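User: Working on a comparison across species. This one is CdaR family transcriptional regulator from Gordonia rhizosphera NBRC 16068. Can you predict its structure so I can line it up against the others?
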Amino acid sequence: MSQFFVPGHSVTMGGRKDAETGILCRGTKGMWRSSCSVDTMSDVSISTGSSRAAALAADVLDDLPALTETLVERLEAAERTYLDAQLLTVGQLRTACTENLSSILTVLAGRGRVRSDVARATGRLKAEQAIPLPAVLRAYRLGGQLIWEQMLRRAQGVPADELLDVPAHLWEAIDTYSDAAVEGYREAEILRTHADAEARALLVRTVFDDHSDNPTAIIDAMRALGLPERACFVVVCAEDAEPRPATATDTATRLKNKGITSVWDTQPDGYLGLICGRSDADVDLALGELGSVFDRRVGVSRAFAVPAEIASALDEARLARRCAPAGVTTVIRYESLSLALLLVRIPGAAREVAGRTLGALLELPDEERDEMMATLEAWFECDGSTAATAERLHYHRNTVLYRLRKIGDLTGRSVDKPIDAAELYVALRAIRLLGHPRN
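Assistant: Here's the predicted structure for CdaR family transcriptional regulator from Gordonia rhizosphera NBRC 16068:
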């Protein structure tokens, strides 16, 4: 024979000792919960196994206010978390203790059914008030220990066999209420995570919005995001066919591992980023990382020092991205741009000039037109060297000369004349950046 053990109390009967609470109880795994889950346990009623034991539970229930105060005192003594909690008040803690003790004792007294909603609500409250989950579960164990102590104090003269199943029922109830509290806690955590993510996304969007009429809005958002108010800032506009929030998060993490702070927002056509470097060297390091993250065009604004310039920097980053032909992989910095920037800033006029300059060349069949334009582009890239152009395109030199003469005939402009060559180059760049004038 062994004993139920609570400091100062003992009742002799067979059983096992709970290592954490110091209470001996007979194992009855699944005694009354085996056919129900947490979701359905509110439909379950149990008893303590005898009318005498139920009467003891009812007697303890009648002393609920004092029981609550004792549990609150024990929780505050055992869990520093409750004393340090900034959000959970003593009144809220007392209410949670009262509701859970009342619900468990009501079940043990045979006066009602298991109420998972009470434990779920407790779990949600503790999660919302930032009480760690282990502290929540420990509170249930302390509550179970207190109930058993109080029942034993009232058990003088009660035959041991009438109390035999009480600990098993009690600790099954504690386990069940703990499980429900965990579910409520997890639900609140998920909701809080989603709410935090939505709030953060809204703050990030605020950073990139134009708040010229209310500049403090950007400052407030940056403070909430933990961003510096002065830094070597650049705005990034990265292209992606199928933007994913995970890519934005991964990019921020990648830069953070390099000691560089940044925030990113997912857009329908890519990503917006604000890089907060300590120096130009940080910016250069960050942009080097972006080249291996994004496989399409990435536009970068000029560096600036104060958040008030974010909106104009965003325009620069978007323009810079448009200054590279579609489909290429490159990082384009706004301050490095010249002709391309002029063309994308006045796209209508640029297309019109390109159409006039290239004229009949654009009316050729697609394949022939593309060959002619590729030859002209290669000639410019090879600094006007016919031999180098032929080598790059794997053509005979005479083929290159023939195509250049034909381009002259179709456009009325010769590559041998500097002004004509300049006009052809501008028109060619406009087509590459902005597309065919007819489109």
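For your comparison, note: The beta strands are 3-6, 9-12, 16-17, 24-25, 232-239, 261-267, 270-277, 297-300, 330-333.

User: Helpful, thanks.
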